[in-house]
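Go through this chain for my students:
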Amino acid sequence: MNRRDFLRASTAAPLLAARPSELFAQAKTEPSTGARWDRGQVRHLLPTVSDTELLLKASFASPLAAAPTLRIGDLAVTGRMSDTRAEFWQFHATGLTPGRRYPLTLTGHDGKSLCEPWHLSTFPAPESRPEKLRVLFYTCAGGHEAMDFLPAVVRNRLLRRGLSFGPDAVVANGDHVYWDLLAQRASVRLGGSPLARQIAGTFERSAPVLGSDNETVLRRAVDPQIVPVYAADFRSTPVFFIQDDHDHFDNDEATDAQVTFPPDHFMVQMARATQSLYYPEFLPDATRPGGLPGASAGGRALPVSESFGTLRYGRLAEILLYNVRRTMTLAGPSAVFLDREVESWLTRRMAATGVAHVVNAPSNPPGWTAGKWGEWYPDVLGADGKLTLATPKPFWQSGWLKQHDRLMAAMSGMRGRVPLSISGDLHAIAIGRIQRSGLTDFSANPVVSVLPGPVSTGPTGWPSAFRKVAPSPSLHLRVDEEVKPIEQHGFTLADFTPDKIVLRFFKWDVKTQGVEALDTLEPFHRTELSRPG
């Protein structure tokens, strides 16, 4: 440890000791487990798959002297270093057999095992007809526990309960990292705070993210938000991580002094570096254009996509995964959240036939508002403490709502399908049906919107605390709320069969329930959505 690191650690200790004692008491509570899987030198493993490809992100307890090897059945894949210090590696395999359960082994350059072997299955072929699919959905799992977020071990325990139901895939929708740097309100308690500087150091926005001091700062900030939350527990479950505003190291705020989005170059590089190190990008899909933003460089197609992805499970289900922050514009009536080519891709997939269920998973939720700037809706908090449309929302762009209405119309127009959206961002659990947006009527096939539940939110992070208003339907909409937004931790399980979708909602109240209750959580609400006609 050099002198600078020693001083940083020693000055951070008193501040860490001053954090709420009850949270750290919970953090010492280990989750109940069965037989332990031997992680060996592995710190974390996060895989994703398609029908014929696999992408694995891994980190190790110390730098590796040479590239490790991932053996997938009889196929050997040499790792590619993701960082500049040989602690983070990724493995990308192609030409796999659809619907096959593969044995996986991870070895060092000397042939010795780096961890215990495990298994992972590819998805069924696109034209196959699987009878069932189970997906675990949640949002907002990031945050450093020294900054009042739920302790990482408690988050891990909540997610392990979700995994106990045997999902075939996981969708983690946005806000995997909270370390806001510029936003006036959020940065003072996150990445711009004295505590953040003492924990991690200071970023230099004019320097590269990887290969400079920024890489050290990034690791110190992000490691505690991801590695202990996931560890190797998801090694046999494909994950799909959608990024949102905080994953670009800022909150969506707009004032005369600072408008944080669209993301500047440094924000994009921070999001890109975090994704490259910690969690998988999206694998190619034959029905998704190869040149969408974040999926190409130098005019040539790349094998993965950063912001727009597809979870395709035969002809049973297709989940459209999209980050609305990366391509947002500030062009007034013609402004968009989603690049026009991305919108075209989404509407084409919703209009196409051949897949029983097409589900939207945007990082920004349709249906509800908390009055913040970077939403689809113009609602803003009035002087009376209520949301209103009578007061213009500063810096809000009317084109965002136009794009929202086009997307909602495309969802509602899917005859023979449930128009379902399971989104991120908003710290709540809810389900409602959007019947109307302005003058556009969706009542013939209402859009079902779901808030799947947050994982990490601390006492000051709930909308009613940070925004001073609880989430509620936008006044621009008519929404029938089946479950009004609940500000508690939780997740949602979605079971797909050819004729219906069954949603099960789970919640945990940190104020009234002990950590041990996480091990036996059962759904508090169940909804069955049958395909129309």
User: Anything to note?
Assistant: The mean pLDDT is 93.
